[in-house]
Amino acid sequence: MTATPMTPLQMVIAIVVSAVITFSLRALPFVIFHGNRKMPKWLERIEKSLPAMIMAILIIYCLKDIGDNMFGVGIPRLLAVLITGGSYKLWHNTFVSMAAGTLSYMGLLYLFSHVLTIA
Amino acid sequence: MTKKQLIRHSFIKSLPVLCSYLFLGMAYGMMMAEAGYQWYYSLFSCLFLYSGTCQFLLITFFSSGASLLTVALTVLLVNSRQSFYSLTFLKDFNAMGKRKLYMIHSMTDETYAVNTTLDYMPEDDKHSTMFGVALFSHFYWTFFSVLGSVIGQLLPFQLEGVDFCMTALFVIIFIDKWEQTDKHSPALIGLGVGVLCLLIFGQNSFMLPALLLSTALLLLITNTNFGKKDKDAEDENTENKTDDKKIEVVTSPEDIINDTDTGAKEEHKI
């Protein structure tokens, strides 16, 4: 797999495929259960543990390229993750933490990749 | 309730979603613009895909030219939780006639959370309110995403770093999930397998093996005796480490369902 961006047609196909899968997932219980709420045990267990695992992988995905430019991008991004996580631990407010994380990242990115490199 | 009252009521109920989608939608739109994609891609995604996490991820998939298989599997696993949301509404949506398909399409973390709080209403009013909340929410998401895209395209300077909002969102949800349970093995599997696959397969192709491998591992440990022993041991560890934290013992399937319902309600105030 190379890192060539998708063409507009590929983008539309990707959106359509994602949309069909998402709708199918949302509709699945209506097809399977017919008003019966009982789920098999193993499915219940997976349901409880899958989201945390997926989120962990997605966070890795977001941080996958920090090694490419550790000083200019990596350090700001890791610091911003700490700021996001720390502020969320403190206040449990999604809006505050997202704003704090994103704004501090934008600031740190500017600082590390423009200001500090010149100095 | 009259139609006017119902619209008003739906609007009031949808206000928390407005707060969430105002910010997330604008962030999404700006990230699209920053990545160089026109506003109509945002519009198309919002109308037909309507899934925040996936829309954010798709931006990076567009830029990196991810394979369709990676896109499909990621969406499948990321949105699998929404199947579980549907279970809550089987009866309600089935009773909603023509509106059923739209209700299924428009069910997100946020509308799920709001629509589970309407049980105090008479059936008909409740269903109309649910439909109203769904319509308002879909509108907010689409409107603010397109607005964010247009603003992002018009701004004379680059919004360098705005893409971090996706990372922030995932970090926040991760912390929520982490705090909801004392069994941290799934989260740790995700982190471990994720890093391992990144090192082995590299940036551009690690997602697929990471998702497959960790899901397989999760299935294995949650459904074998070995896994149970493992988790019991882990429970003891967490108990020792965090005495002050509330430990919930799940005893029956009803508990699991109730637990999940409240958990999902709390987890997404975004």
Account of the protein in words:
Chain A is mainly α and 119 residues long. Chain A has one domain (35-118). Chain A is built from 4 helices and no strands. Chain A has helices at residues 8-32, 41-62, 70-91, 94-118. The model of chain A has no long low-confidence stretch (mean pLDDT 87). With 270 residues, chain B is mainly alpha-helical. Chain B has helices at 3-35, 39-48, 52-64, 68-78, 81-88, 90-94, 100-105, 109-115, 123-154, 164-180, 185-201, 207-222, 225-241, 253-267. In chain B, helix 1 runs parallel beside helix 9, helix 3 (52-64) runs antiparallel to helix 4 (68-78) and helix 11 (185-201) runs antiparallel to helix 12. Chain B is globular and about 60 Å long. The two termini of chain B are 29 Å apart.
Layout: helices, strands, pairs:
The complex is a heterodimer of chains A (119) and B (270).
Chain A: H1 8-32, H2 41-62, H3 70-91, H4 94-118
Helix pairs in contact in A: 3-4
Chain B: H1 3-35, H2 39-48, H3 52-64, H4 68-78, H5 81-88, H6 90-94, H7 100-105, H8 109-115, H9 123-154, H10 164-180, H11 185-201, H12 207-222, H13 225-241, H14 253-267
What ranges of chain B have pLDDT less than 50 throughout 5 or more consecutive residues? 225-270
Main beta-sheet annotation of chain A: none
Q: What kind of sheet is the major sheet of chain B? A: none
Tally of distinct domains of chain B: 2
What would the keywords be for this entry?
heterodimer; A: 119 residues; mainly alpha; B: 270 residues; 14 helices; globular
Concise account of the structure shown:
The complex is a heterodimer of chains A (119) and B (270). By secondary structure, chain A is mainly alpha-helical.
